[in-house]
């Protein structure tokens, strides 16, 4: 009968890092249940006490990385009797954890959109998620699956100078771990409603007084924030989406939502969908849509 032993890592070896996959074999013994203990002393379990059932592999995290001795004990039940065997390892001298490389942790983000890149540091990662939030471990800004990729672009980030927290979850050997980092949100001055109103009034050719009065509403209605496809030609000639006005709308949507609409001045399907999503309306709403977009 084969010896009860750990097959990965080889007993006596130095561990990979703060996370280690352990595999073992029990010489064909029918195992009913098993636990894996990991500690700093023989039989200790301060690093881990993992219930593994009848499995022969598991992943353990939060291991020391100071070169100290690490003791591993596998308890297993067979024939109603609990037995165990021990092995000794050497802790790694580095953590070997995934880490974000772009932007540098602690740095100020680029703006509402930011590409995050990370390095798995040679680890065999099965899957991952990136959380971005306003507090440690939070995901109020975004929680996005990233698989085995090492980069993703996040939109809709705050631009008020607050602390932004990231948590990169990663799965190794069937177990989930995470690493946390913090960044500083970009500081982008927000235009006032008065500034936005005067800008829009200039585009539609009325007095730039910052007041949305009858003349301004009439001018906005003539620009018609909506699709004119299917209407009769005379309507389309009288009510058009002026390219400069549409570009203003596209910029406002991008600023408010972190979208990346092309500033092409065309009120096509993408812009129409973005406006409907942001304002909670569909179809043609003319001046009221413009007025809603004046809110900073």
Could you characterize what this model shows?
The chain starts with a strand and ends with a helix. The protein has helices at 193-204, 214-223, 233-238, 243-257, 269-279, 287-292, and strands at residues 5-8, 20-25, 33-39, 48-51, 57-60, 69-78, 81-90, 99-102, 114-119, 127-133, 142-145, 151-154, 163-172, 175-184. It has three domains: 5-90, Sandwich (Immunoglobulin-like); 99-184, Immunoglobulins (Immunoglobulin-like, Sandwich); 193-292, no CATH class. The protein is α+β, with helices and mostly antiparallel strands. Strand 6 (69-78) and strand 7 form a beta hairpin. Helix 4 (243-257) packs across helix 5. The strands form four sheets. It has a four-stranded antiparallel β-sheet with strand order 4-3-6-7, with no helix packed on it. A four-stranded antiparallel β-sheet has the order 11-10-13-14, with no helix packed on it. A three-stranded antiparallel β-sheet has the order 1-2-5, with no helix packed on it.
Features:
four-stranded antiparallel beta sheet; 296 residues; 20% helix; 3 domains; 30% strand; Immunoglobulin-like; alpha+beta
How do the helices and strands line up, and which of them pair or pack?
Blueprint: E1 5-8, E2 20-25, E3 33-39, E4 48-51, E5 57-60, E6 69-78, E7 81-90, E8 99-102, E9 114-119, E10 127-133, E11 142-145, E12 151-154, E13 163-172, E14 175-184, H1 193-204, H2 214-223, H3 233-238, H4 243-257, H5 269-279, H6 287-292
Antiparallel strand pairs: 1-2, 2-5, 3-4, 3-6, 6-7, 8-9, 9-12, 10-11, 10-13, 13-14
Helix pairs in contact: 4-5
């Amino acid at each position: 009968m084969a010896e009860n032993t750990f097959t990965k890592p080889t007993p006596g070896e130095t561990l990979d890092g703060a996370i280690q996959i352990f595999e073992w074999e029990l010489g064909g013994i029918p195992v009913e249940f098993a636990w894996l203990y990991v500690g700093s002393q023989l039989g200790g379990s301060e690093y881990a006490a993992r219930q593994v059932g009848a499995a022969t592999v598991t992943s353990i995290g939060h291991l020391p990385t100071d070169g100290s001795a690490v003791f591993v004990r596998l308890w297993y039940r067979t024939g109603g009797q609990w037995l165990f065997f021990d092995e000794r390892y050497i802790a790694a001298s580095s953590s070997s954890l995934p880490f974000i490389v772009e932007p540098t942790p602690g740095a100020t983000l680029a703006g509402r959109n930011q590409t995050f890149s990370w390095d798995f540091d040679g680890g065999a990662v099965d899957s991952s998620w990136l959380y971005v939030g306003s507090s440690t471990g939070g995901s109020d800004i975004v929680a996005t699956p990233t698989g085995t990729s090492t980069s993703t672009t996040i939109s809709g980030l705050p631009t008020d100078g607050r602390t932004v927290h990231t948590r990169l979850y990663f799965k190794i050997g069937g177990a989930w771990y995470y690493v946390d980092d913090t960044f500083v949100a970009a500081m982008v001055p927000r235009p006032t409603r008065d500034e936005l109103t005067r800008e829009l009034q200039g585009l539609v050719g009325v007095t730039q007084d910052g007041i949305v009065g009858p003349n301004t509403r009439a001018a906005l209605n003539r620009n018609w924030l909506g699709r004119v496809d299917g209407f009769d030609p005379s309507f389309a000639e009288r009510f058009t989406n002026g390219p400069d006005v549409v570009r203003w709308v596209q910029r406002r949507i991008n600023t408010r939502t972190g979208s990346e609409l092309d500033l092409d001045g065309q009120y096509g399907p993408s812009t129409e969908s973005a406006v409907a999503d942001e304002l909670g309306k569909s179809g043609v709403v003319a001046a009221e849509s413009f007025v809603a977009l004046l809110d900073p």
